[in-house]
Amino acid sequence: MSVVWFTYNGMEVLEIIFKKHQDWCDIVESFGVNPDTAEDIVMEMYIKIDRLVKAGTDIMYNEQEVNYYYVYRTLQTLFLDLKRKEKKVEVLGLEEITKEIQQDLHIDYQVLYDKLNKEMESLYWYDRKVFEIIDSGESFQSLSDKTNISYYSLYNTYRKVKRHLKDLFK
């Protein structure tokens, strides 16, 4: 694929457009953005127009003058794209974030502990004992050897109780 460069009187299209750089920035600032954002949008416009010119689009009125309306519409489109993206992003202030963190940190551990103990007491004695022994650090294999209860039976009992407790605290 060959790249086509349009030149007018020895100048490339982007050079001609760049001569009006401050005008483009002023136009974008008139949309209501700060100078830094305006500069970013204008730079995006250069990239977009460069791609179009390389693809063969002619954006010139004549050999010295660029199609201002085309550049204006490109800047406007880039500005509107930016605004659409900003709508999708929810910006939270520091106060809101701090409030959310404080709400998340306010956990009544005593209530959770009491709930866990009450649930443990309601379990079948075998399930509760297997869970307590394994949870205290005993391995499935050593408990199986000591009690002659199958390894898989102990494992399944422990897993069942653990899943039940997890579901309780979701």
Structural notes for this entry:
This protein is mainly alpha-helical and 170 residues long. The chain has two domains: 82 residues, Orthogonal Bundle (Rna Polymerase Sigma Factor, Chain: A); 65 residues, no CATH class. 71% of the residues lie in helices and 2% in strands. The protein is built from nine helices and two strands, in the order ββααααααααα. It has a two-stranded antiparallel ribbon with strand order 1-2. α2 crosses α3, α3 packs across α4 and α7 packs across α9. It is elongated, with a radius of gyration of 34 Å. It starts with 6 loop residues before the first strand and ends with a helix.
Count of β-strands: 2
Q: How large is the radius of gyration? A: 34 Å
The strands making up the biggest β-sheet line up spatially as 1-2
Low-confidence stretches: 1-5
Q: What class do helices, strands and sheet pairing give?
A: mainly alpha
- Strand-residue proportion: under 5%
Q: What's the main sheet like?
A: 2 strands, antiparallel
- Give the overall shape: elongated
Number of helices: 9
Order of helices and strands: EEHHHHHHHHH
CATH hierarchy: architecture of the largest domain: Orthogonal Bundle
Number of structural units classed as domains: 2
What is the helical fraction, as a range of percent? over 70%
Overall CATH class of the largest domain: Mainly Alpha
